[in-house]
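Lab notes, practical 5.
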Amino acid sequence: MATSRRMRFVHSQLAWMVATVLVLSLLGSLSYEFFFVLSLLGLLVVTELTAPVNVTPEWRVRLRWLTLLGLVGFAALTLHRIMGLLPPEVIPW
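Output from the prediction step:
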């Protein structure tokens, strides 16, 4: 039973990511940054929607590390975009 729930999670995440690629392609704004951010959003949504009520399986505990890694990547991406918007005089290096 745990394997079927795990596979349901994987299929849901994969469907979200494929839908993200299709929608971004149709809008003409497919980029790595948009795909990463929307995939991370999908990971957070699918994780919450498939969360068990009583018992947390071991694979869901490891999923927290993936979520943390995604949030660190999002923070780095956001910082990179903000640094690109600032004038060169503001950045001390």
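Observations recorded by the TA: The first helix runs from residue 2 to 27. The chain has three helices and no strands.
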